[in-house]
TrEMBL record:
Keyword Glycoprotein: yes
Annotated protein name in UniProt: Lysosomal Pro-X carboxypeptidase
GO molecular function: dipeptidyl-peptidase activity; serine-type exopeptidase activity
Organism from which the protein derives: Triticum aestivum (Wheat)
Statement: the UniProt record of this protein carries the keyword Mitochondrion: no
SUPFAM superfamilies: alpha/beta-Hydrolases
One annotated GO biological process: proteolysis
Family: Belongs to the peptidase S28 family.
Length: 560
């Protein structure tokens, strides 16, 4: 079985750490097999695609011997497994579970249900009609049933547990009373509890082959259509919502299934992060700019720390001392683990640089990038650069102060994000590099190396151009202006994923709402008294636009 290291994932999207320059490539190749032996499960964070959103507080990398090693998805043995199903109720394809409670004992704002979903929507092979239990959540507290059914607001599930995303999508709960809306959150196949082959879902390409964005969109279409029939709400308008990867799905769903959804709100959706549409260095350039805008000294300290870590970590004695500096629970085996630990903290903090305190991924204060830079700038002149960087990163990992030590190597995957490795190795190929202007070490990207790494992990090769073939992307303004409608693309420029998003209006009904200080789908978080005026205004515009869509739709239905 071929082995290689695990890829980083973000709150909704994989952060594809690029291939590195010549001085690291040779050691990367030599150390590839050793990498996996030292690796652990995915980090419990989401950049996607996170890929992000709060109604209430959310429920509470791999090491490598080579310098700054490139990560690859985990390997799986080739073996198919039987389909995983939950017993359906007398209503046929539906099953429900009792209302659950959060970790602190409060009732969750939704009930869980299960739909018997087809495995393969696009072929008629013997396995295609097999069924698996597809989880979705409902909140009908504010749903208006008479005289006409209120809209269905449907969240397109991301690469993780749907309850995590629902709990952190307060905007939908905030606006549901105004619209009389039924809230639906649909889990993405192969994530959370919606695993077609149960615990064997990630065993091989024979099972993982059913994990694609097109299958997921078809799942959503089938479930929404069936649910509307089951609720006797066939004519109720449907607006789909999604953030990060979920936002990509929401926009694509509107384009692919306009007869199912009459509008889409896609927040922080980098649908242009493919091929050569967006500059490859844009993501990490944006992260760097976030820090540089707060403090040039802060930027410079982070830029300097990588070489120091490499030098000190080149010996066992140095690694032991660094392990103490980083308060590692166990002695760190590879210097790249320390670099990854810092890299993750700085990248995700830039993504969730919210103007109010949040705990979507980690407990963080308002404007956490500013707070990190304050920590670095507070050190006296001549202080150790590693100690400065560690102290800043500790804000991300230990803002509450309750961590006695850090799992620098190892960790778990509480939100179930590990399926993204397969997606990034098949269709979600987002080239990323690091420029000389970045605060991260310069590095490149090679389609050939990407292909070889994916084949070593899964025995499949990426279809590099599939996303733009299936959904478009090139010259999107000209293409969508001719036939697309009713899509809001919202982005905040503090979010590094915004560079791959739609940042200008395409037509009178395909609108880009951009905020200069916004972060990763900030607009999807629940409203608070401390929200800046520009966030309040962004959400107001979104509500106003959606009202217009629904009013127009209802007039059309009435005329019919």
């Amino acid at each position: 079985m071929r082995r290689t290291t695990v890829s980083r994932t973000h709150p909704r999207l994989l952060i594809l750490k690029p291939r590195h320059t010549t001085r690291a490539r040779a050691s990367c190749r030599v150390g590839r097999r050793a990498n996996m032996a030292a690796s652990s499960s995915l980090l419990a964070v989401v950049p996607a695609l996170l890929l992000l959103l709060l109604i209430a507080p959310a429920p509470a990398a791999a090491a490598s011997p080579s310098k700054r090693a490139t990560h690859q998805p985990p390997p799986f043995p080739a073996r198919a497994s039987p389909l995983h199903q939950r017993a359906a109720s007398s209503s046929g394809r539906y099953a429900a579970s009792a209302a659950a409670a959060t970790d602190n004992g409060t009732a969750k704002p939704f009930t869980a249900h299960y739909f018997q979903q087809e495995l393969d929507h696009f072929t008629f092979t013997p396995n295609a009609s097999g069924l698996f239990s597809h989880k979705y959540l409902l909140n009908d507290t504010f749903w208006r049933r008479k005289p006409t059914a209120g809209p269905l607001f449907v969240y397109m599930g991301n690469e993780g547990d749907i309850e995590w995303f629902a709990t952190n999508t307060g905007f939908m709960f905030d606006i549901a009373p105004e619209f009389g809306a039924l809230l639906v959150f649909i889990e993405h196949r192969f994530y959370g509890e919606s695993k077609p082959f149960g615990n064997d879902s990630y065993k091989s390409a024979d099972t993982l082959g059913y994990l694609t964005s097109t299958q997921a969109l078809a799942d959503f279409a089938v479930l929404i259509t069936s649910l509307k029939h089951n609720l006797s709400a066939v004519d109720a308008p449907v607006v789909v919502f999604g953030g990060s990867y979920g936002g990509m799905l929401a926009s694509w769903f509107r384009l692919k299934y306009p007869h199912v959804a009459m509008g889409a709100l896609a927040s922080s959706a980098p649908i242009l992060q493919f091929e050569d549409i967006t500059p490859w260095s844009s993501f990490y350039d944006a992260v760097s700019q976030d820090f540089k805008s707060e403090s040039l000294n802060c930027f410079s300290v982070i830029k300097a720390v990588w070489d120091v870590l490499d030098d000190r970590g080149s010996s066992d004695t140095g690694l032991l001392e660094l392990s103490k500096t980083f308060r590692a629970c166990k002695t760190v085996r590879f210097p790249s683990s320390l670099s990854n630990w810092l890299w993750t903290a700085f990248t995700y903090t830039a993504m969730v640089d919210y103007p109010t305190p949040a705990n979507f991924m980690m407990n963080l204060p308002a404007y956490p990038v500013k707070e990190m830079c304050k920590i670095i700038d507070s050190f006296p002149a001549g202080a150790d650069v590693v100690e400065k960087a560690f102290a800043a990163a500790s804000l991300y990992y230990n803002y509450t102060g309750d961590q006695k030590c850090f799992q620098v190597e190892g960790g778990d995957d509480p939100h179930g994000l590990s399926g993204w490795g397969w997606q990034a190795c098949t269709e979600m190929v987002m080239p990323m590099t690091v420029s000389n202007e970045s605060m991260f070490p310069p590095s490149g990207f090679s389609y050939e190396e990407k292909s070889e790494g994916c084949f070593a992990s899964y025995e499949v090769r990426p279809r590099m151009n599939w996303i733009t073939t299936e959904y478009g992307g090139h010259k999107i303004d000209k293409v969508l202006k001719k036939f697309g409608s009713n899509i809001i693309f919202s982005n905040g420029m503090r979010d590094p994923w915004s560079r791959g998003g739609v940042l200008k209006n395409i037509s009178s009904s395909i609108i880009a709402l951009v905020t200069e200080k916004g972060a990763h789908h900030l607009d999807f978080r629940s409203a608070t008294k401390d929200d800046p005026d520009w966030v309040v205004e962004q959400r107001r515009q979104e509500v106003e636009i959606i009202h217009g869509w629904i009013d127009q739709y209802n007039k059309y239905i009435a005329q019919m």
